[in-house]
Each structure stands twice: as C-alpha cells, then as structure tokens.
Amino acid sequence: MRGLVRQGHVHMALMSRNDASPVLADMDFTRLFHDDFVAVVPEGHALSPRKGTSFAELARHPLLLNPKGVDLREMLERLFHAEALVPRVAQELIGTHALVALVAAGFGVSIQPRMALSGLDMQGCSVLKLRGGAGREIGVMLPARRSHAPATHGVQGVPAEQGKAGALHG
C-alpha cells in the first residue's frame, strides 16, 4: 500500500505502524488511534486465568502467528528482539480467524491487535492484556512534500474529529 501512495496511484492509505516501525522520510503519517496488542490463549491454558501477560511469558509457549513479511509479524519480531527473546513459532497462517480457531483448539497462543478480534468467534479463547502497552498506531499515510486535493485533507480530518467527539462523549 505504501508503494501505491508513494507512486501517486492512491491519494492516501489507512495504515498501521508502531514505535519499532521504520521511519519513512518520504511519507507523512497522521495518527488516528492506538490499537493494543493482546494475547489470545486457549481457555484452560496456564495463562488463561490471568488478566495480563508479557512477551517473555508468551515466548515460552508455541506461538501461532502471521508469516514473516506480514506487517504484524514484523512488528512482533521487533518487539521480541527488543526484549532479547526468540519466539517459538509453531504455525504461520494468514488470517486472524484461522489463528484464533487454532488457539481455541489448543495448538498454541497468539498475539493479535485487539481491533482484529472484533466480530470473531472467541469461544474457547481468553484474551489477555500485554504488559507494557505494546500495540500499533492506526493512521493516515500521505506522501510528504506533495500537495493534496482538498477532499484528501477533508477525509483525513474526519476520523480525528470523530475521535475527539468520542473522547468528549465517551
């Protein structure tokens, strides 16, 4: 998607990034909101009664993750590396619903953005907060140093204004 924005094929993109993401000098990123990473563990698992866990604890269990090359996996790899941990990846799959189904079946644990779990059947799973507030920023990416159409600026401002309204009324 970054390439499409960079080449001018699309005006902007809704993207995710985290503190460990590379800085793109030729792109401007406007943060809209934070999406926490959470641990998804099978009900009855040793970690399931807890409210939270850590990367160190999760690294001791078989992990079910996206394959390398997927943004989420790259973010998680950098977070494990920052804590000098090597994750035990048991299975790689694209598709949050498939990863969650494997967790529910007891094949391992997973780390997912909280937002990605919305609307999924979580029966058989427990969701734990990750200590340290790890997550990703969701925002609008635009090419830097390029003029933008008024409509692009208008669309870019809508989610930010809705977020402010939600903060005031929520």
TrEMBL record:
<protein>
    <submittedName>
        <fullName>LysR family transcriptional regulator substrate-binding protein</fullName>
    </submittedName>
</protein>
<dbReference type="InterPro" id="IPR005119">
    <property type="entry name" value="LysR_subst-bd"/>
</dbReference>
<keyword id="KW-0805">Transcription regulation</keyword>
<feature type="domain" description="LysR substrate-binding">
    <location>
        <begin position="3"/>
        <end position="152"/>
    </location>
</feature>
<comment type="similarity">
    <text>Belongs to the LysR transcriptional regulatory family.</text>
</comment>
<keyword id="KW-0238">DNA-binding</keyword>
<dbReference type="Pfam" id="PF03466">
    <property type="entry name" value="LysR_substrate"/>
</dbReference>
<keyword id="KW-0804">Transcription</keyword>
<feature type="region of interest" description="Disordered">
    <location>
        <begin position="148"/>
        <end position="170"/>
    </location>
</feature>
